[in-house]
Structures are given as structure tokens and as C-alpha cells.
Write a structure and sequence with these properties.
Strand content: under 5%
Radius of gyration: 20 Å
Largest sheet: none
Number of domains: 1
Number of helices: 11
Oligomer: single chain
Helix content: over 70%
Length: 256
């Protein structure tokens, strides 16, 4: 059983919907990044304006939209597999469940991550370790983040989460739950495994630049590679070793 058994029209609708949401997310990020040009003169500012509740809400929205743009493409195989299994169950008399509910559950999980990322950004800015909305200014902290992300790439937990993300049919069959609430739960569960797979990679956005869209796109492309290419596990391990080496170089340079 695979996503290819979906009727062409249904498959095209799902692909187009996810592509459209992804494109809108990137357009929003491009709009935000274009507005950052005027902040370049603030790069060496010694103090930051305290956040208001509106600032926090906008930061959260930025992070969540960014996660949608980065992670939704890599969720396409799982989404198509859910739609396939869901269709077969409908043909056997099970109730109709919109595939959008599965996607909503997935994005809810990344919304939870976005809350944590917003809090982390607030803490780093409050400690005056970050140029506003751009990147960490402390090379030692940046090196530690690279090293931590690299070490995590080599752990059994990372491998287990990545394996779940790379086997859509096994995941859907193992975690299937009926009904609308079940679809939301399945999407959130898949999002949880993606978090376990990619959360520390997302922390590298603080190093390369939250609004550095080339860096954002590079991480998103790497996430897609390790999830979908045949040698994805090897890609993840190789990137982990490279990240450790880069982190160690940054740490030694900062301490020297």
C-alpha cells in the first residue's frame, strides 16, 4: 500500500494544498526579512527594548510560520500515506476524516515548539547575546549549539525518531486512531517524532540567523534530505560529525 494508489485528483489536491501553504509561509518570511534591513544599524546596540505581549505574539507567529515553511514539505509523504489509508478505510465503511486534520495536528506540534523557541529567543536577547531578530553574537554559545546539535545527530533517540519519520506506512498503521480527534492525535504524534528528529537542528537558526533565509532554507533542505533520500540515516550521521567539528572549531577559536 502506498500513496500512489490515491486517485490522481485527490493526490494533486493534497500536494497543491501543502505547496500553497508552504509558499505562503515563505512569502511571509521574505516580507519579514525585507523589513529587517532598517535594523542593521542596531547590530551593536547595547540594550534592547523590553518585549510587550504584542511583541511576543508576533515572535511566536514568526516562528510558527517559519516552522510551517520548513517542515511541511518533509511531511508530504506521511500526509499522502495517511490519505491513502484513510481512503481505503472509507471504502470499507469507516467515517470520512479530512486529511487537513492530520496536517493540523502536525502543525500544532510545531506550534508548541514555536512557543519554546520564542521563549528561548526572549532569554537570549534579554542576556544581550543576540542581534535583534538575527543571530547570536557570542561565538562560544554558537559553537556549543553546533556541537550539541552534532552530538544529538549521532544518538539512538535521533535515529529512532528519524526512522519513524522515514517509514510513513509503518507509522500510520501503528498509530492509527479513528475519527477527527484520532486524526489530530496522529498528526501531533508525527509532529512529536519530527520534533525529536529536528528540534536541535532548528536551534541552529539562532546561530546562522533567524532571518537569514538562505540559512533557513539550507536547514529545511537538509531536513528533507535526511527524511526522504535512501541514505538519509547516513546523511544525518555525516552532518552530525561535521557539526561537531565546526562546533569544536568555534569553541576553540572563542577560547583562544
Amino acid at each position: 500500500m502506498g500513496a500512489a494508489v490515491l486517485p490522481r485528483r485527490e493526490r494533486a489536491v493534497i500536494v497543491a494544498a501543502l505547496a500553497g501553504v508552504t509558499a505562503l509561509s515563505w512569502l511571509y518570511l521574505v516580507h519579514l526579512a525585507s523589513g529587517m534591513g532598517g535594523m542593521a544599524g542596531m547590530a551593536m546596540a547595547p540594550a534592547l527594548t523590553p518585549w510587550t505581549a504584542q511583541d511576543a505574539a508576533l515572535m511566536f507567529a514568526m516562528w510558527w510560520v517559519m516552522m510551517v515553511g520548513m517542515m511541511l514539505p518533509s511531511a508530504l509523504p506521511m500526509t499522502l500515506t495517511f490519505a491513502t489509508v484513510n481512503r481505503r478505510r472509507r471504502e470499507r465503511g469507516s467515517p470520512y476524516v479530512p486529511t487537513a486534520l492530520f496536517v493540523a495536528g502536525y502543525l500544532f506540534a510545531w506550534g508548541a515548539f514555536s512557543i519554546a523557541a520564542t521563549a528561548a529567543q526572549f532569554a537570549i536577547e534579554h542576556a544581550a547575546l543576540m542581534i535583534p531578530m538575527m543571530h547570536i553574537t557570542d561565538p562560544l554559545l554558537g559553537g556549543l549549539l553546533f556541537a550539541a546539535a552534532g552530538v544529538y545527530q549521532l544518538t539512538p533517540l535521533k535515529n529512532a525518531c528519524l526512522r519513524r519519520c522515514r517509514t510513513p506506512l509503518a507509522f500510520v498503521l501503528e498509530h492509527w486512531r479513528d475519527g477527527a480527534a484520532g486524526a489530530l492525535h496522529m498528526g501531533a504524534a508525527h509532529g512529536g517524532f519530527c520534533l525529536g528528529c529536528c528540534a536541535l537542528l532548528m536551534a541552529l537558526l539562532f546561530v546562522g540567523g533567524i532571518m537569514n533565509l538562505l540559512w533557513v532554507a539550507a536547514i529545511a533542505f537538509f531536513v528533507l534530505l535526511e527524511k526522504v533520500v535512501p541514505a538519509g540515516e547516513l546523511v544525518a550521521r555525516a552532518a552530525g560529525m561535521l557539526s561537531i567539528a565546526l562546533g569544536a572549531w568555534m569553541i576553540l577559536r572563542a577560547l583562544g
